[in-house]
Amino acid sequence: MELVFRVAKGKIRIVVCSLRLGLFTSLEVHKRYVKRSVMSPKFGLDYAKRVAKCKKCQQQLLKGNLRMWRMVPNPFTADSGNPTEMKHYFHTDCLFETLTRCRAATKVIDSPDDIEGWDDASDDDKETIIDKIRSLAELRVKKFGDKVKTSTSSPSKDIQEPTVSQDVSPRKRKNKKAKSATSAQKKVRRESAEKEPEDKTSGETSGGRTKFSEVKREVETLESSKSKDEMQEVRSKFDVFKLFCKLCDVIASVSKYTEKTTAVKIFINKEGYDGDLYLLLKFLIPEADQRVYNLKAKQIIKIFSSLFHWSVEEVKESYNQTGDVSQTICSFFPKLDSGSKKSKLTNQMVDDWLEKLSGLTREEEQQAHFSEICKLLVTSFVSEEEPCSSLIFYRNGVSSLELKYIIRLIMKDLRVNAGAKHILEGLRKGAYEIFQNSRDLHIVIEKCREISEEKSLPLESDIILNTPVKPMLAEPCRSVKQAMERCKKEMYAEIKYDGERLQIHKDGDSFLFFSRSLKPASDHKVVDLNKVIAEAFPTNKNLIVDAEMLLIDTNTGKPLPFGTLGIHKKKEFKDAAVCLFVFDCLYYDNESLTGKTLRERRNFLEENMKEVPNRVLLSNCHLVKKGENDKLDMLIWKAIDEDLEGLVLKDLDAIYEPGKRHWLKVKKDYLAESNIADTADLIVLGAYYGTGNKGGTMSVFLMGVYDEEKQKFYTVTKCGNGHDDATLDRINKDLEPKMNKISRIYENLPQWIECSRSLVPDFLVVNPKESPVWEITGAEFSRSDNHTASGISIRFPRVTKIRDDKNWETATSLQELQRLYELSKTKTDIKQSIDDGVPLYAKDKLNNPNDDGKASVTKKRKREAVNEKSKNNKQIDSANIKEDGSSSDEETETKKTKIPSKYGV
Predict the structure, then answer these.
(1) pLDDT confidence of residue 686
(2) 767, 880 in Cβ contact below 8 A?
(3) CA-to-CA distance for 98 and 313, rounded, in angstroms?
(4) What is the DSSP string of 829-885?
(5) What residue spans define the domains of the chain?
(6) Has 496 been annotated as catalytic?
(7) Whole-angstrom Cα distance, residue 300 to residue 308?
(8) Do 901 and 643 touch, CB atoms closer than 8 A?
(9) Alpha helices in 612-705 (DSSP H)
């Protein structure tokens, strides 16, 4: 298999990378492609038929607007004899700004004849472009002098004949003198190209993003330029951080996941590769790094603004437009070098710097630590009028490209659109499956080295104590019929506890707690769990259990609503305690149990776990056999009536598969009946800037209702789900003239809206009576301290319909919303002949699947003993629950909790 890269240097060439040998070889392109490349225009313009993004500024090119394109080589071409090209689209200003940085030998726009589609442009656009061409020509002559060959005539609207191009026509190639002259020109171009510094924006070349040949050239340059003393500091030429950054640019520049994988494979299989493979993969897969940096985008903006005396508001405004804090920070260094000086920064240096950063929590400490990186920046961006005397810069020549990826490592998002699977497949097929189980890159690398290429890697790998295992997940189930189709013989219908997933690792007397995202759990939530877990598992054996942590009422045993684990919310519930509901065991006595069936793992828990009343309990579940549709239907509705989140359905004969969605989850809003989920027709009151790919656009919307009595609008929820990209683009275009930018400033709110300070949007509608109405569907109506519509909100909201047939008068009013909330709490018509009247969450009558007469006498005695102890210890003192700390990342922004109903607490 071969991967083809093309490089334009005087004549059209390609670079072929052998994946097996990692060798770089130059080959001439097929003659017909040379002819086509010379004759075909390299630039063009049109009016956008669909939304695209400018390759330079990454902002959207809206439909109907003028856009210019530049033809660039496709870095991955299947047919080396007939390579293809691709278009990069730009705003007019962005394209010409990019061309100003091109080398003397690079083909640029010399006249309108170089632009395909010129005749289709409007007169105003033609005039603008001609001015740009003139300015570009003057700048290049001033910059390069005789090294650049310019057009013999200045650009004009009346030009009829093509100007003299830099490229040599096929006719001239037949002339020996012309051929000789061309060779001399190419020599000059090569010399000027070697002297010309690289593009100074963000690691991009003039023809598009950095290609893999750039990475190879960078390695060769480092190898030849560094002295022996310097090379001793860098263990390998492949460990230079700038090389890692360029590899990221290559991965980001291609869209197909197979091509991203191939780019990684080429890099690590390069002949002579001796870099730190673990550190490379650790950087490429930020999710594998367990370090927490305690920094968000706005905090990084604040730190850099303080260091360089920038206006925080200006930086935030730029961030709102891009959605990328790394790109925003680098854009404020307009002259910051991107590669003309040799950087001494290595992967190990960056890793050490990040390690120290992870231990800092105070803003002053973090700012001082960032100043160390700033000391490495190049001096060219500092003005003489405002010298930054408090910092000692410029030791190692860190470029904007490196700064960008340092910030992205902190944010744990390289923005290359490649996950762990795509990266690890570049290492070895099957490496990702090992990583799924072990979550340890050292083990992945070790197994890849131990097992020869001829043999396939084992699909499963033993899990490791104290290393988080990716949890097994559930996919939505929409009906009883769907569940029965998946059921082979028997299944467990288990309560879906509405808390926080917790994976507990017991290693002797020490405990580690990991959240669903595999990060360490918040200390204030788990600080007092060590003792009760040791009591529940009195054995000194090591183990890993999967559980759900939530607050329960110690009087009734009923689980309390989601979000009550927060420090402040706990105080609202006096008779409550943090309880662990254990539902699976993955590891015991240095042996993995993931290969055993759920039936075996559940039996193991029943035999080895001792329930601690109100603190550590087995999850409640019922046995459902294939064909028992009525029983499952009753359990689902019963869970809804008891204000539980739903049920999780698990095949008894299934093994535990980390990261796989092979369970089923049944929730109120998943069921096929449309009248089950909580729905309201809400008015668009405001909007927020999106992040990432949605940067610069309104992508999250503030929804609300109208109060007929007070004649004011009140907020209900923020909603960012339900619209596809095309719909979102249309909504932005429609809403833009109807919105007023208030930049989240509370004082800018008008009198007609009641909105809390924490929810003030970036944009507010000018006239809410002309605003659109959307149907919002959620899991349930909930309570929010931040929203002003009588404290009613919607949990997990999404847009299900744009109600063009409704306006502010016919939309859901505040009074109707209150009635909808009360209606949502009304009990359903369960088949009472099947319902035994015992709550699903009850522990007095153990609702376990073995309570069907088949359990052993020993097990029954154990249960009776546990029941007796539970009755005698109904009241438990929860005063020892520590109240210090801060809200976790798992809590929602509005800290929603369900309003207690007559059936609840």
Answers:
(1) 96
(2) no
(3) 28
(4) ---TTT--S--TT-TTTT--TTTTTTS-HHHHHHHHHHHHHHHHT-----TTS---S
(5) 2-196, 228-411, 430-461, 473-673+851-872, 678-824
(6) yes
(7) 12
(8) yes
(9) 629-641
**Residues linked to residue 515 through DSSP beta bridges, in sequence order:** 502
Can you tell me the distance from the alpha carbon of 127 to that of 533, in angstroms, rounded to the nearest whole number? Answer: 76
For 473-673+851-872, CATH number out of 3.40.50.720, 3.50.50.60, 3.30.470.30, 2.40.50.140 equals 3.30.470.30
Cα(641)–Cα(761) distance, rounded to whole angstroms? 36
Superfamily of domain 2-196: Zinc finger, PARP-type (3.30.1740.10)
Phi, psi of 53 (to 5 degrees): -120, 140
Q: Classify domain 228-411 by CATH number.
A: 1.10.3260.10
Residue 206 DSSP code: T
Give the end-to-end CA distance of the chain in Å, rounded to a whole number: 65
Q: What is the DSSP letter of 13?
A: E
Collapse the DSSP code of 96 into the 3-class scheme (helix H, G, I; strand E, B; otherwise coil) and give the result. helix
Both structure tokens of 746: 């509370």
Of 43-47, 138-142, 221-225, 496-500, give the lowest mean pLDDT range: 221-225
Nearest to 572 by CA among 822, 895, 794, 842: 895
CATH 2.40.50.140 fits domain 678-824:
yes
Q: Which residue type occupies 834?
A: I
Distance (Å, rounded) from C-alpha 714 to C-alpha 720? 18
Compute how many other C-beta atoms are within 10 angstroms of the C-beta atom of residue 867: 16
User: Average pLDDT, stretch 104-116?
Assistant: 85
Q: Do domains 2-196 and 678-824 have the same CATH topology?
A: no
Structure-token pair, residue 806? 């409704």
Report the C-alpha gap between 273 and 427 in whole angstroms: 13
Nearest alpha-carbon partner for 7 in 131, 106, 92, 95: 106
Catalytic residue among 56, 246, 404, 496: 496
Query: Running DSSP on this structure, what letter comes out for residue 633?
Result: H
Strand order in the sheet with 621-625: 473-476, 661-667, 646-651, 490-495, 621-625
**Is the model's pTM score more than 0.85?**
no
pLDDT of residue 449: 86
* Tokens representing residue 460 in the block: 């499963």
